[in-house]
Design a protein that fits this description.
The complex is a heterodimer. Chain A is of the alpha+beta class. Chain A is built from nine helices and five strands. In chain A, helix 5 crosses helix 6. Chain A is globular and about 60 Å long. The two termini of chain A are 30 Å apart. By secondary structure, chain B is mainly alpha-helical. In chain B, 51% of the residues lie in helices and 4% in strands. Chain B is built from ten helices and three strands, in the order H-H-H-H-H-H-H-E-H-H-E-E-H. The longest helix of chain B is centred in the middle third of the chain and has 28 residues. The chains are: A alpha+beta, B mainly alpha.
Chain lengths: 192, 249
C-alpha cells in the first residue's frame, strides 16, 4: 500500500463515523482527488484480496471500515458489540414514505398509512433517522420531515437515488401531481 | 368513534381503553391488503361486500373493535358496499366507481410495502456489519491538558484584575483634633475640684492628637478666662485653676 492509502486507513480506523471523500482528501493537502480515489480503491482491494475480516464500504455519504457479516454472530454472542434493534413494520413504512415523499408532514404520512404516525415519528426522530426539515405553508404550518445521513448509513445507501425508482416498483404510485421519482432524484445528490 | 367504543364493557373485556395492536398488522390498509392477497382478488375489482364482511370478522377476531383507524376503515367499506348496491344510471362510462379512492389508497400502500421490503433487506444487511463505535456514540474528546508557564498565569491574573471593577474605597479620616471635647473634659474636672494638673487631663499614653487637643483646649479656656494657667518653672507641670470670674460670666 502507498503511504496515502495507509494514512486513509488510519483515519478510517480512528473515526467512529463514515468519512466523506473530501474529508479524507483534507488529510493530505498535497494529494489530488484522483490520488485519494485510487488510494481508497487500493485500500478496498487490500481488504478484499488479501482476505481481511473487515471491508471498506461507501455508505451514508462516506467511507467506513466494517466487519464482514460472517463474523457478526460470534461477535454478538460474545457481547462485544450488539446489532441495532430492527425497526418495526410501522417504522419502516413511515420511513419509506418519508424517504420518497420528503419533505412531508405527519398528516400526509398518516393518510397514506391509514393510521396516525405521531409516536412512530417520535421514535424515528429519536433514532436520528429523520429530522424536521421545514414547515408546510398549509393550515397550522405543520412540521415537515426528511431523512438524515444516519438513515442512509443504517441502510447502507450512498444516496437516496439508490432506492428503487418508483417506476421500477411493481405498482406505480398515483402518478399524477406528485412526481415522486423527480423529487427523489432532486434530493439524491445532496451530501449530508 | 361510535358509542360502542366508550360504552361500559362486560367484565371479561379489558378494562383499559388503551388499544395495543398485537394483530401483526400495521393498520387497516395492511389488513385489507392481506385479505385481498389471501383470496387472490383483483385489486382493481374488489368484491366490496365480501371483503367488508371479512374485514369485520377479522376485526372481531383480532379484537380490533376499539381501534379508531380500523373502525374508520370498516365504516368506509360499509359505505362503499352500500353505494355499490345503488342502481346505476344508463351508460356505464359515466359511472363513478365508489371503490376508486380505496383502490388508489391500496395501490399506494402496496407500493409503500414494496419499499419496506427493500429497506428491510438493506437494513438487515447493514445490521450484520459492525463499524467502529457504531452503537456507542463517542463522547466528546476530553479537553487538552493545560500547558501554562508562570508568565502566562500572571498575564491572565493581570487581565482578570484589570477586567474586574475597581472597588470603591472609602477613606475614613479621623478628625485631627478634638478641642471642644477636651474643653468639656477640663470643665468637668474643674467642676469637681478647684484645680487640676496637666497630667490629670492628659493621660500618660496619650496620642499626639490628644496632647495637642488638650493644649489647644486649655489655651482656648484660658482665652475665654474660664481657667487660669500657671507654670511655676519651665517644663514643670501646668497648674489649672478655675477662674471664678470666667465661670460667673
Amino acid at each position: 500500500m502507498n503511504s496515502l492509502a495507509k494514512l486513509l486507513e488510519a483515519a478510517l480506523f480512528a473515526s467512529p463515523r463514515p468519512i466523506a471523500t473530501d474529508e479524507l482528501a483534507a488529510l493530505d493537502p498535497e494529494a489530488s482527488p484522483a490520488a485519494v480515489q485510487s488510494a481508497l480503491d487500493e485500500l478496498r482491494e487490500h481488504y478484499d484480496v488479501d482476505g481481511h475480516a473487515v471491508e471498506l464500504v461507501d455508505v451514508g455519504g462516506g467511507w467506513q471500515i466494517l466487519t464482514r457479516p460472517e463474523y457478526t454472530e460470534a461477535i454478538e454472542r460474545a457481547q462485544l458489540a450488539i446489532r441495532p434493534t430492527r425497526l418495526s413494520g410501522a417504522a419502516l413504512e413511515t420511513l419509506a414514505i418519508i424517504a420518497y415523499r420528503q419533505p412531508i408532514g405527519r398528516a400526509e404520512i398518516g393518510e397514506i398509512r391509514g393510521v396516525d404516525v405521531g409516536a412512530v415519528l417520535k421514535g424515528l426522530h429519536e433514532r436520528g433517522l429523520i429530522d424536521v426539515v421545514g414547515r408546510s405553508e398549509a393550515l397550522g404550518r405543520p412540521l415537515l420531515y426528511g431523512t438524515t445521513s444516519r438513515f442512509l448509513e443504517q441502510f447502507a445507501l450512498r444516496h437516496l437515488g439508490e432506492l428503487p425508482r418508483v417506476d421500477e416498483l411493481a405498482i406505480a404510485l398515483r402518478a399524477a401531481e406528485m412526481p415522486v421519482a423527480a423529487a427523489v432524484a432532486a434530493s439524491a445528490p445532496t451530501s449530508p | 368513534m361510535g358509542p360502542d367504543v366508550t360504552a361500559p364493557r362486560s367484565a371479561d373485556a379489558p378494562e383499559s381503553t388503551f388499544v395495543v395492536d398485537f394483530s401483526g398488522f400495521n393498520g387497516p390498509l395492511d389488513l385489507l391488503l392481506s385479505l385481498i392477497r389471501d383470496d387472490q382478488l383483483d385489486i382493481y375489482d374488489i368484491p366490496v361486500a365480501r371483503i367488508c364482511d371479512q374485514f369485520l370478522v377479522r376485526m372481531r377476531q383480532l379484537q380490533l373493535n376499539e381501534a379508531a383507524e380500523y373502525l374508520e376503515m370498516a365504516s368506509r367499506l360499509i359505505r362503499i358496499k352500500a353505494q355499490m348496491l345503488l342502481p346505476r344510471k344508463d351508460g356505464a362510462e359515466a359511472w363513478d366507481d365508489p371503490r376508486a379512492e380505496l383502490v388508489r389508497r391500496l395501490l399506494e400502500y402496496q407500493q409503500v410495502r414494496e419499499v419496506v421490503d427493500v429497506l428491510e433487506r438493506l437494513g438487515e444487511d447493514r445490521r450484520n456489519r459492525f463499524g467502529r463505535s457504531y452503537l456507542a456514540q463517542p463522547a466528546a474528546p476530553p479537553p487538552a491538558p493545560l500547558a501554562l508557564s508562570l508568565a502566562d498565569l500572571l498575564v491572565a491574573v493581570d487581565r482578570v484584575l484589570r477586567a474586574a471593577r475597581r472597588p470603591t474605597m472609602h477613606d475614613v479620616v479621623p478628625r485631627a483634633l478634638d478641642v471642644d471635647g477636651t474643653m468639656d473634659t477640663v470643665r468637668a474636672i474643674l467642676r469637681l475640684r478647684a484645680h487640676a494638673r496637666w497630667r490629670d487631663i492628659v493621660r500618660d499614653e496619650a496620642e499626639p492628637w490628644e496632647v495637642l487637643s488638650a493644649l489647644l483646649a486649655l489655651l482656648e479656656l484660658a482665652k475665654r478666662t474660664e481657667v487660669h494657667l500657671t507654670q511655676p518653672r519651665p517644663f514643670a507641670d501646668v497648674e489649672i485653676r478655675r477662674e471664678l470670674a470666667g465661670e460667673a460670666a
